[in-house]
TrEMBL record:
<feature type="domain" description="Rubisco LSMT substrate-binding">
    <location>
        <begin position="4"/>
        <end position="121"/>
    </location>
</feature>
<dbReference type="GO" id="GO:0008168">
    <property type="term" value="F:methyltransferase activity"/>
</dbReference>
<keyword id="KW-0808">Transferase</keyword>
<dbReference type="InterPro" id="IPR015353">
    <property type="entry name" value="Rubisco_LSMT_subst-bd"/>
</dbReference>
<dbReference type="GO" id="GO:0005634">
    <property type="term" value="C:nucleus"/>
</dbReference>
<dbReference type="GO" id="GO:0032259">
    <property type="term" value="P:methylation"/>
</dbReference>
<dbReference type="Pfam" id="PF09273">
    <property type="entry name" value="Rubis-subs-bind"/>
</dbReference>
<feature type="compositionally biased region" description="Acidic residues">
    <location>
        <begin position="43"/>
        <end position="53"/>
    </location>
</feature>
<keyword id="KW-0489">Methyltransferase</keyword>
<feature type="region of interest" description="Disordered">
    <location>
        <begin position="39"/>
        <end position="59"/>
    </location>
</feature>
<keyword id="KW-0949">S-adenosyl-L-methionine</keyword>
<dbReference type="InterPro" id="IPR036464">
    <property type="entry name" value="Rubisco_LSMT_subst-bd_sf"/>
</dbReference>
<keyword id="KW-0539">Nucleus</keyword>
<protein>
    <recommendedName>
        <fullName>N-lysine methyltransferase SETD6</fullName>
    </recommendedName>
</protein>
Amino acid sequence: MVGEEGAFVLGWDEVLTEEELSMALKVLCMSEEEFKEYKEQDGWEDDSEEEESSTLSNEALSRLKTPCKKLLYDSVLLTLESYGTDLKAEQDLLNNKEAYEKLSRREQQALHVRYGQKRILHQLLELVQ
């Protein structure tokens, strides 16, 4: 369901791997009985019309059912915990010209990437609260 990387790709305005995330949320939020029934329906493609009409834009994410929102929220928190620093620390470093200039070019680029990733994750937290 998730692909080789085992991760979902989020952008500023929508989920870029929306089919995978939609399916994962659907399955992970099912009860055991619902999952057995769904699995026995000879294929996972029966819901293609429903999935096509519901893109996972930021607006759609904020309207997810509570169990899906909780799952996403908890997943984002775990992802944020895997970073060595928080969003504020990255922002402080970006704003501290002297400290920033001491970083190598590669470290500066990594800082920008981490900062962008964390901002997207924090935006997602707000959407699913």
